[in-house]
Amino acid sequence: MAIFKRDPRGAHCSPLDPGNELVHVDCASHTYPDGSVGIHDMCFSVRKNEIVAICGSNGSGKSTLIEHLNGLLLPSPGTIWVNGRTISGGEQSDLWKEVGLVFQHTDDQLFAPTVIDDVMFGLLNLGMSPADAKARAVEALETIGASGLANKLPNYLSGGQKRLVAIAGILAMRPRVIAMDEPTSDLDPVHAGIVEKIITDLKARHGISVVIATHDLDLAARIADRVCLVRDGSVFAEGIPREVFYDPALMEEAGLELPVTVRTWLGYCAAEGREPGDYPLRLDELVAALRKK
Amino acid sequence: MTSASLSPHIPDLDLITYYAERQDSRFSQVSPWTKLALLILTVVTITVTRDLVLLGIFYAAVVLAYALAGLPLKKLFDWYALPVIFVLSLIGILMWSEPGVPLISAGIAGFTLTLTDNGLLLAVTLLIKALISITFSLFFLMTTRYSHFADIIGRIFPSPLDQIFLMTYRFLFLTLAMTASLLKSVRSRGGGLLHSMRMQGRLFAGIFALVFIRSFEQGERVHRAMTARGFLGTYTTSGEVPRPAAAEYGALCLAGLGMMVFLFPFWKGG
Asked: CB of A56 within 8 A of CB of A181?
């Protein structure tokens, strides 16, 4: 798969592979009340059983795009195509049933008095009985390894625990896609590792596609199947991580630095006069490449 | 633990919720309807009576129930500060104008203020009444799960008043948490609530205004996160409130009968 570059001023897009796409956003523009343009000419899709990383600098439109996936924001003009259904601006959206959204700041998301009540919140909105909702919430907490937190108060949890509970609240609703805004920001390496494992498990064990909007390019390099680069409110390039992250000119165009592994490998190859033929992304791949003669 | 109490004298909502959700005392097993009915009966009774002995018995009984429920007594006495200040600020004027046997007289700006036995009795009586109400209300809140409390509100108040009440209650948590963060920031740089207000009054006033704006903004963000999980304006409660057991009905009947017997002379006397 080669890097696919898109002209932000080009024609609107339609689903390229409708049989394989779960969500497709074709947003001509989204303008905030103060007149600032959040995103424009945005063409973005989520396919079955994949992890997509949306990477871009601050203010590039990542969070605005993420909120479109869940229907919190709707394009005007433009459409969101979900599972064969087309939704346009002004319609009452029930996209939240298909696409779960984990917010960057967990304090915004966790509002109920106890963890179990918070995880049950979305399930009750789905119309489940309290007993069924409780059973499903307990199961979701077990899935992410946080069953011991069920009766705790969200305000008494650490940042890492709050993040796990926020993910459980969405996972319990069993959406087809889970979108996460900066899933590892403000987390220590241990909790960031736990969240990373959960994301890969969501895809591998539960068949849920995951969209992550992130500054953590090393995370994207390790787990993403596809990377979309966002700049000035529009996806301008996308491709597999190995190709996108090993294109310094493209990354500079996106206003991003290369992931640490990539920088290390390219620096090593330049110093040693080697051709960077292996393109390692993960630490184990880097070690293996360094050990090669 | 990320939240902090604003002051030891302001009820800590997180701590109240913690005890409410713990559900490990015998009073947590009592139906919230029974506790609410007893709270109403108590408030009606203490509103009518001025009998200091009876009020003392009520107060002792309520504090005993609070302690038996495993709730923190020291915190309770700390939390009395605000209601005591509130009551004293109200009766601080009234108590000096009551007729009766003079106890203390003081001349201020050409006026003579006299505290009589009835004035003192009024002060003590109103104070005990306030403390009984506060203690019982805290006892009710700290032994009743939020979902049950929310369900009761949903049944008592018509929509959308119930939703407004519940959202306001949760919004209070946000505002207090935001204010606590602010105070933490002030204390971390050597300031203090009263000290900083005295030294940098205008700045402090501005900061407190900002706290409310930020709380409002956070409230909006919370609302967006709720909408992202299907919230359409109606907070669905997760548990039906347990009905009172037969023994609780019996206790309520006895309490109601006792109150009627007690109130009968007041009613007869007009």
From this structure: no
Note whether A96 contacts B229, CB cutoff 8 Å: yes
| Residue A291 Cα, gap to closest chain B Cα (Å) | 45
pLDDT digits (tens, 9 = 90+) for B134-178: 999 999 999 999 889 988 998 898 888 888 888 888 788 888 888
Nearest CA in chain A to B231: A125
Q: What is the pLDDT of residues A237-276, one digit of tens each?
A: 999 999 999 999 999 999 999 999 999 999 999 999 888 8
Neighbours of A87 (CB within 10 A): 17
Cβ(B233)–Cβ(A129) below 8 Å? no
Measure in Å the smallest separation between the Cα of B6 and chain A Cα atoms: 14
**Domain membership flag for residue B175:** no
Q: Which domain holds residue A136?
A: 100-174
Residues B256, B42 contacting (CB under 8 angstroms) = no
Interface confidence (ipTM) of the complex? 0.78
Count of structural domains within chain A: 3
Sequence-separated (6 or more) residues with CB below 8 Å from residue A269: A275, A276
- Closest chain B residue by Cα to residue A104: B225
Q: How far is B18 from chain A (nearest CA, A)?
A: 7
pTM of the model: 0.82
Q: How many domains does chain B have?
A: 1
